[in-house]
Design a protein that fits this description.
This protein is an alpha/beta fold. It has one domain (6-241, 254-258, 265-311): Rossmann fold (3-Layer(aba) Sandwich), CATH 3.40.50.720. Helix content is 35%, strand content 19%. It contains eleven helices and 14 strands. Strands 3-2-1-4-5-7-11 form a seven-stranded parallel β-sheet, with helices on both faces. The protein has a three-stranded mixed β-sheet with strand order 8-10-12. β1 (6-10), α1 (17-26) and β2 form a beta-alpha-beta unit. The mean pLDDT is 94.
Length: 314
């Protein structure tokens, strides 16, 4: 790309950002990352040599820090968030101020010409209707504080014209800022090291997507912004609307010694249960490149290198 955009990524050193940022730089964009590096990560070390990369250690909630960064950006990607129900419940004030207030503040700073591409979670669908696909027109009824803050942020962003949002399926795969607590990553980790998992509400279904395919969706949106803007898009693997039980069966094909048991009592703290249609984004020409099975194989390789609790979010 001869003339790249100036792209501001908040939380750009996280699980998604540390995968996305190198891909944006490789396409010729100028990328500025602001991150508080709360996990003490050095996940963007490999791009510090790139003259198109700028990094700011700071807080995306701080108006004085954000104002000059926002002013220079053509595209804003607000990734900074406390992600997941457990982390949000551990810091409820932070969840609201980072996931919602900081995004609303950005909306107040940008000009009409600037573009925002926001990641949301499809956990906003809560509990879907049995055997009915959730589309982008389905009602949003988030159950967790995490889901509510992300749905509120999406509403704030979509009230302006030059925006779009992605309702992401449960993300999996290796990343420089690894997270072991995401469902697929967690189950593969347990299959390798514990060889067993106890499933609560094993029939609950959700959709899945590889972290690199999420990054590819952001690049697709930047490349096709004019025809995609103004809408929300589900982003997931259309062949991977699976229950937790079905997910374990897929993992077991690769790790035959893995044992999983269903608990008759107990509740999953993250109570999402729905199947999702990804037809809208697929109609724009986007298609995932990484299957669930390929991701499981990748994780098995990755977990031969790492086993450490600091790769979680809580």
């Amino acid at each position: 790309m001869a003339d790249g955009f100036n792209i501001l990524v908040t939380g750009g050193a996280g699980y998604l950002g540390s995968t996305l940022v190198p891909m944006l730089l490789a396409r010729g964009h100028k990328v500025t990352v602001i991150d508080n590096f709360m996990f003490k990560q050095n996940t963007l070390a490999q791009v510090c040599h790139d003259p198109n990369f700028t990094v700011v250690k700071g807080d995306s909630r701080d108006e004085a820090t954000m104002k000059p960064l926002v002013a220079k950006a053509d595209v804003l990607i607000p990734l900074a968030a406390l992600v997941g129900a457990p982390l949000c419940n551990a810091d409820k004030t932070g969840a609201v101020s980072i996931n919602f207030d900081a995004v609303k503040m950005i909306c107040g700073m940008v000009s009409p010409a600037q573009r925002i591409v926001l990641p949301n979670t499809n956990s906003g669908y809560g509990i879907g209707q049995k055997d009915a696909f959730c589309t982008e027109d389905s009602p949003l009824s988030p159950i967790t504080l995490y889901g509510r803050t992300k749905v509120d942020a999406e509403k704030a962003v979509m009230e302006r014209e030059n925006s779009l949002s992605f309702r992401l399926a449960t993300v999996f795969g290796m990343s420089p800022r690894m997270r072991v607590d995401l469902l697929v990553n967690d189950f593969v980790h347990r299959a390798i090291f514990d060889r067993a998992v106890v499933l609560f509400e094993a029939h609950f279904k959700r959709n899945y997507i590889h972290v690199r395919d999420v990054a590819r969706a952001f690049i697709h949106a930047i490349d096709n912004f004019e025809k995609m803007k103004g809408l929300s898009y589900n982003v997931g693997l259309s062949d991977a609307n699976l229950s937790k039980l079905e997910l374990c069966q897929r993992i077991q094909k690769h790790l035959p010694k893995f044992v999983f048991l269903e608990a008759l009592i107990g509740e999953d703290p993250d109570k999402r249960d729905y199947i999702v249609s990804n037809a809208r984004i697929e109609a724009t020409g986007y298609a995932p490149a990484h299957s669930l099975d390929a991701g499981i194989v990748e994780l098995i390789k990755g977990f031969s290198m790492i086993r450490d609790t600091h790769y979680g979010n809580v």
